[in-house]
Design a protein that fits this description.
Chain lengths: ~290, ~120
């Protein structure tokens, strides 16, 4: 089977293209799947997380995946971040240090993920000078995204991440994708609420909503992330099932996708030039916490 | 003889300044719950902890409200060495946990009503 692959941008059109591939190829078993990237002149590197998740599912169905006719600029970026190493190419050095490598984790790899974030993001010399407050919030947000995938997805095939830093634009994109049940199904299973895919994402990022049951409460992770991005001036996009949700400049837009993503993708764009101090207006007292 | 105050070092239990995983929070919970069950005054030290998530704090502290009353927790548990924004996060985790355990059915009802305001479930 051969797929002609378009440009993959870090936006709704990029996700639309990825779910189209997933939809067309999801029933393949023991097939040869060629993804012809001749028409792919642009590939936002953090989208490797969602792309890699889809390809991993295809290879789990014992299909052989070949990425062909990759133009040199796309091949360069996808080789630098290690993505193409999964598909028969060699990793090439990242001289400017602007890639955050593509990785796959199992849900029990919290520690390994934490090391990856510290080594590949936080302690890299190439990282922009961010304020202490911003760096702390940024780091917490990344871990909240990963924890959210671990706690809610029940993903057996793993969690995928990748990022890219744009020094001139003072932006850092980072994506985490899982191959779990997705928000719509998770909410239905745990609360009985039947929602559209995009309403399910909206629900998960609002107020006190949580699908957590049992002795450990939950429901804060995505709200904290949303609050941080509102202050930071960045952007969050969430794709889950056939829903697309984007928040930027404190405004939310949602849209249905033509086909479902087989899990959830959370992608953040961080404004690295943010000078907010992230100091609290009123500081809580340790004596008055419980 | 029972100690006057037991100090639990999160850094020592987790073994890392990155306190982000729910499974690591569970290790803290196990010790806290055992101490509180004995009526032991306990100080939870966040010394050398650099990063916290709500997932970690929900597991470590939030779930205490399932087994212990607010009065018991307030009387026996103290935290120290926390940065102000971490304290603020813990406060939110605690408030969420109180609501969650006060009446889970009511919590779910509130969640449904909230959705009714701005959601349009099919």
């Amino acid at each position: 089977m051969k797929f002609i692959f378009p440009d993959i941008r870090h936006d709704q059109s990029g996700f639309q293209a990825l779910v189209r591939l997933e939809n067309e190829a999801s029933s393949y078993f023991l097939d040869d799947v060629e993804i012809d990237m001749n028409a792919t002149t642009w590939f936002d590197a953090d989208m490797c997380a969602a792309f890699g998740a889809i390809l991993y599912r295809l290879s789990d169905n014992l299909n052989t995946i070949r990425l062909t006719n990759i133009c040199s600029s796309v091949e360069k970026i996808l080789s630098k971040n290690g993505f193409l190493s999964h598909y028969g190419r060699e990793k090439i050095p990242d001289r400017w240090g602007t890639t955050i490598p593509y990785r796959r984790f199992d849900v029990k790899d919290d520690r390994y993920f934490a090391d990856y974030i510290e080594n590949e993001l936080i302690h890299r010399a190439e990282m922009p000078a961010m304020s202490h407050g911003l760096l702390k919030k940024f780091r917490e947000s990344i871990f909240e995204i990963f924890s959210n995938a671990v706690l809610h997805s029940n993903s057996e095939l793993g969690i995928f991440s990748c990022g890219q830093f744009f020094p001139n634009r003072q932006r850092l994109d980072f994506s985490v994708a899982d191959l779990g049940v997705g928000m719509r199904q998770n909410i239905q299973d745990n609360t009985g609420l039947i929602l559209s895919a995009e309403d399910a994402i909206h629900w998960s990022t609002e107020g006190r909503n949580t699908t957590k049951r049992g002795p450990i409460p939950g429901g804060l992770g995505l709200k904290l992330l949303r609050e941080f991005i509102d202050l930071n001036g960045g952007c969050i996009q969430i794709v889950s099932d056939a829903g697309y949700w984007r928040r930027e400049n404190k405004k939310t837009i949602t849209a249905p996708l033509n086909y479902p993503f087989p899990g959830t993708v959370v992608t953040v764009e961080i404004n690295t030039a943010d000078t907010n101090s992230y100091k609290l207006v009123s500081e809580p007292s340790a004596a008055n916490i419980f | 003889m029972m100690q006057k105050e037991l100090t639990i070092s999160i850094f020592e239990v987790v073994g890392s300044p990155l306190c982000v995983a729910s499974s690591d929070g569970q290790k803290i919970y196990d010790r806290l719950a055992a101490a509180l069950k004995e009526g032991q005054s306990t100080i939870l030290s966040f010394h050398n902890v650099s990063t916290l998530t709500s997932a970690f704090l929900n597991a470590a502290i939030g779930q205490l409200y399932d087994k212990f009353s607010e009065e018991q927790i307030r009387a026996l548990l103290k935290v120290k060495d926390m940065e102000p924004d971490d304290l603020a996060l813990l406060k939110r985790v605690v408030e969420t946990a109180k609501q969650y355990f006060r009446d889970p059915q009511k919590f779910n009802q509130a969640v449904r009503e909230e959705l009714g305001d701005d959601g349009n479930g099919e």
